[in-house]
Amino acid sequence: MGSKIKIRQSQEADIAAISALLAELSEAGMRSLPSDPRFVRDRYVLDPNRVSSAVAELDQEIVGLQILSVAPVDNAYGVPVGWGIIGTHVSPRSQRLGIGRRLFALSRPAGAAAGLRQIDATIGATNDQALAFYESLGFRTYQTAVDLVKKRFDYPTWSSST
Fold it and tell me: What is the bridge-based pairing of β-strands 50-58 and 84-90?
């Protein structure tokens, strides 16, 4: 019998499990930001700039997280104010199951509903897996540096001309 992946918005009760997921990624050398519960609460679950904080559950364990926030003034990534900033985190034990794509299926319409026109994904230049993942979702490179690649997703703009 196969396991079912459930995608939903995070809740305060998920903070410890999200923290554990992020610590697992840190231990695997796949994350450098903090993973403690206070950081998770303030930056991911209860961030006032949050548009979406989606989690993926597999067998009732949180194995994925995708955060979409509105870029504030002087944000750490240098993203233009009002753009979205996205981050995707999937347990090494649960990769290649389509979790990131399913998380984006929840985050993308949330961003549109929030009025976002662009989303930035700032990725380590050597993280080939993340670069390919975001490219497969429609993100395109718009800026590069020695150690970072900045990819951008543009929501379609509709104009009616008569």
Answer: unpaired
**What are the structural domains, with CATH classification, of the chain?**
5-154 (3.40.630.30)
Q: How far apart are CA 146 and CA 107, in angstroms?
A: 29
Two tokens, residue 93:
């034990």
Question: What does the alpha-carbon distance between residue 144 and residue 142 come to, in Å, rounded to a whole number?
Answer: 7
**Residue whose structure tokens are 């992020």:** 22
Q: Coil, strand or helix: which one is 123?
A: strand
Spatial CA neighbour of 76 closest among 154, 152, 150, 134: 150
pTM for the full model? 0.92
d(CA 27, CA 17) in angstroms, rounded, equals 15
Question: Residues 118-158: pLDDT tens digits?
Answer: 999 999 999 999 999 999 999 999 999 889 999 999 998 76
| Separation of alpha carbons 83 and 106, rounded Å | 17
